[in-house]
Amino acid sequence: MPDNDVCVVNARVITMDDRRTVADAFRFCDGVVVSVGDRESVLRVPGDPEIVDLHGATVLPGLIDAHSHLELLAYAWEIAEDCRAGRVSSVAEIVDVLRDKANKTPTGEWVLGQGEHYQHLKLTEGRYPDRHDLDQVSMNHPVMYRASYHLNVFNSRALQLLGVDDDTPDAPGGRIERDTDGTATGRTYDMFAALGGPQPPLGALVDGIKRAQQRYLSVGVTALGDIMLHTEGLDALLALEDDLLLRVAVYPKLPTILSKEDITSGRLGEHFATADPARLRLKGVKIFLDGGLTAGAAALHDDYPGQPGYRGELAYTDEEVCEIVRIVDDADLQIAMHAIGDRALDQAIDAVEALPEARHGVLRHRIEHAGNMFMTSERVKRLARAGIVPVPQPAFLLTTAPGYIKHLGRDRIGPVMPFRTLIDAGLPVPGNSDAIGITPDQHHPFPAMQAAISRRSQDGAVLDPQEAITVDEAIAMYTRWAAHSLGRENEIGSIEIGKHADFVVTGADPLTAPDLGAITVEATWLGGRKVYSR
């Protein structure tokens, strides 16, 4: 007899299968779905199941975030001091908040602050803090303010500890800002890893990831494609063991976690040898081809506005990217290439196209942030022909997209998040957040779904309404299409026989609700076990 035989009945089960079946009931044994249909048919299966009556509530497959950052969420939500716009409105207030933190922190230990994308546009001074501002926090503590992973500001003590002086070179794809005298201002762009930026203790990261996991479960997310940027983050994830509830497909970053030799030798997979692959598995490799537009470090074909001759930097040559893509493909792993600027985007597409044609689409190589902007008709066709998965961020419609437009202009970037165009071209766009803690709810799928439907940002602006998608497509983004991007469509992404019993009970039916962003998650089940209840 199965250990866990359960029939869910009296429900509206939006299965998200190929036929978009809406069932009344389903049954699972030992965490796997064995029957879907009406009450009578699922009870016909032999056995003595437990009956879970949902009294007409709606059920969706467990939601999937195809591009997450557990270690950065742990940092932003649980470790760093909150310096976001909801709490501060000026550089002076950032200094005050961090000074209070320093007064409670032992001398010599790091004081860390978390801000948000384009925060300088919201601060009274119209700029980010610099080393002189953060020196007012403390000269006895290293201090760091983070606007995003791409933009970190250090005080003088921190720069000294990190070995930054007037002669420190910029890393490929990164930049240390300097004043007219050549002295570092404290602002750094895509230099955090290269400078050996501060990492929290393992125990703090483990605890932070546990709490981040609970936040995900509370919004119905049961699986992630997690981008790991540092060895400390991967060590913390592996240390969770039985406390890891989410299904996590991991993409460690080259070169901060692994080397090309780790990939070719198979050593990379040894980290996951004892992990339960249903919960934790190695899926691919992440590389950064350029920096972030929010940090002015994305690689563009044309000059940045007001910066003649500056177009951002590529982290690799074309030949180097082609070699890395080939090595990863030969290892039967996905490549996930960060490419924000149009120059980096073209470099990424070129590298996948350079693979033998028979390999196109086999592993569904990904370009992270492709589809946020710069989506010309020719690039869309090339993505489709090469079987590349574009991974744009629906949640950015709410927060970051208006900044893209202000930064570069509509004429230059084209429609932001052109989901209608991508889907019509046959590209299954995966739902994801790229949440790093810059806003409290960026990890929440339902507001992002609503934004993809309404095209309305948090400030009320309607962005490129011709790119709106349907409710069904918005749900597919965070279920079957996200599963497809992770190569897990046979395990998760829909409620069907043979798949994991991962599902969400919602407070309203998303197919009829006027605002998906207001939908509540009443319960989350993972592997046939309730892991969250409102």
Automatic annotation (TrEMBL):
Gene3D superfamilies hit by this protein: 3.10.310.70, Metal-dependent hydrolases, Urease, subunit C, domain 1
Domain of life of the organism encoding this protein: Bacteria
Gene Ontology molecular-function annotations: hydrolase activity, acting on carbon-nitrogen (but not peptide) bonds
Pfam families (alphabetical): Amidohydro_3
Domain Amidohydrolase, residue spans: 50-532
Identification of the protein by name: Amidohydrolase 3 domain-containing protein
Organism: Saccharopolyspora spinosa
